[in-house]
Design brief:
Elements (H helix, E strand, L loop, with lengths): L15 H24 L1 H8 L3 H29 L1 H17 L7 H15 L1 H13 L5 H9 L1 H20 L1 H22 L17 H36 L3 H28 L4 H20 L7 H16 L2 H9 L7 H30 L2 H20 L6
Helix pairs in contact: 1-6, 1-7, 1-8, 1-9, 2-3, 3-4, 3-5, 3-6, 3-15, 4-5, 4-6, 4-9, 6-7, 6-15, 7-11, 7-14, 8-9, 8-11, 10-11, 10-12, 10-13, 10-14, 10-15, 10-16, 11-12, 11-13, 12-13, 12-14, 12-16, 14-15, 15-16
């Protein structure tokens, strides 16, 4: 097996490091918008007078849009290749995001966010398949982890910048920024891809058999459960820190950014660890879920007057556990089926991930609205992550 960053026989217009860097930029650009719209939840809540359950539905609308289109996009990527799908998909992403400029009600906001989500499915589906295919025959855990750090990097940038920009400039300039950077990041990655080969090995004949689907069941189940932490963290961290612990919005944004940095580190480190374990993704995911469960419980037990000196490292570890898992789960899914169907397998897993991200945040918000305490929501999350750790831990092999 080749080392991941050797240039020999690398199927792109640039070397593997440059290719991976542009893949990372593309994912970061998409994540800055997708995750940023959830960071903006506190501003949408103020503008439309929303409670926490309704605020959670903002995440639901966006995630449902991604979920509806992701499998279809995955099939298209397998058939015509990531280059064409990402080129045209980037136009759709930019157009639907620009449509947020004319939204003036909560109902229309949810409708447009659903359309934005449908288009945003293009970037992870095309980007994941492009990297997965380009690095065939090389250790994939590390490179997939590096590419997937675009998600927490984009979220960290959004958490740091948006709570500072919106009070000064308002929401409209932010939406324009979203649209422009999607075009730049998406087409820059398209420019270095080669056209998809048309040989018979890339066609889809017969689909996945029962054994393939059975092997996919566990990575899909684990991903569904573990996404609860990633999106609850993103949707409610600022609200919890501000309401329960009297931390300013700007400082809470920094804490959220720190959690995403922890998650980015997790995606790289955990991918490397799983490579060193011979591609055994499941046991690494089990440990990761356990870390998330323990830190979620700790967050639920925090006193009201907690010091930022404790909050920053706690949320960094929390991010490591509940954000660092994603690349491992997608790689596990892609490696569970024949390579010609890897795009579909990863997109199907991604679809279930976004199903989870649409379900768990409003449930968390309902628990908090009902009990009037964030602590019960964090306990609920810890229980979900314990279940994910149990399922992953019971898997004898990730292949």
């Amino acid at each position: 097996m080749q080392k991941p960053f050797t240039r020999e026989n690398f199927p792109a217009k640039v070397g593997p490091l440059s290719f991976l860097g542009l893949a990372l930029m593309s994912q970061t650009g998409m994540s800055f918008v997708q995750q940023g719209l959830m960071v903006l939840g506190v501003f949408f809540a103020a503008a439309y007078h929303l409670n926490l359950t309704a605020m959670g539905l903002i995440t639901t609308a966006l995630s449902l849009g991604v979920m509806v289109s992701m499998v279809f996009v995955g099939l298209m990527v397998d058939r015509i290749g990531p280059r064409m799908v990402l080129f045209w998909g980037t136009l759709l992403m930019a157009a639907f995001t620009a449509a947020l400029l004319v939204v003036h009600s909560y109902a229309s906001l949810l409708a447009v966010l659903f359309l934005v989500g449908m288009s945003l499915a293009v970037a992870p589906s095309a980007g994941t398949k492009a990297v997965f295919s380009a690095f065939a025959g090389r250790p994939r855990g590390l490179v997939m982890g590096i590419r997937q750090t675009g998600v927490p990097i984009g979220a960290a940038l959004a958490a740091f910048l948006l709570p500072r920009l919106v009070p000064i400039f308002g929401l409209s300039p932010v939406f324009a920024l979203f649209s422009l950077e999607l075009l730049v990041a998406g087409w820059a990655f398209v420019a270095v891809m080669r056209s998809w080969p048309t040989r018979s090995g890339t066609t889809l004949k017969g689909g996945l058999n029962r054994g393939d689907l059975k092997r996919l069941a566990k990575p899909i189940a684990v991903a569904f459960l573990m996404v609860s932490g990633q999106y609850i963290l993103l949707t409610y961290t600022i609200a919890d820190l501000h309401q329960s612990h009297r931390i300013s919005l700007a400082a809470a944004g920094l804490v959220l950014a720190m959690s995403q940095i922890g998650g980015g580190i997790g995606r790289v480190v955990l991918g490397q660890v799983s490579d060193r374990l011979g591609g055994r993704r499941a046991p690494v995911l089990a440990v990761t879920a356990a870390i998330g469960a323990v830190t979620a419980m700790a967050i639920g037990l925090l006193p009201g007057n907690v010091s930022l000196l404790l909050v920053f490292p706690l949320w960094a570890v929390f991010g490591f556990g509940v954000v660092g898992w994603n690349a491992l789960a997608l790689t596990w899914a892609g490696e569970s089926v024949p390579s010609a169907h890897s795009g579909f397998a990863m997109s199907l897993t991604g679809t279930i991930v976004f199903l989870g991200s649409s379900i768990f945040p409003p449930i968390f918000g309902w628990v908090v609205d009902t009990t009037h305490q964030f602590a019960y929501g964090w306990v609920m999350l810890a229980a979900v992550l314990v279940l994910a750790a149990f399922i992953a831990g019971r898997t004898k092999t990730s292949q």
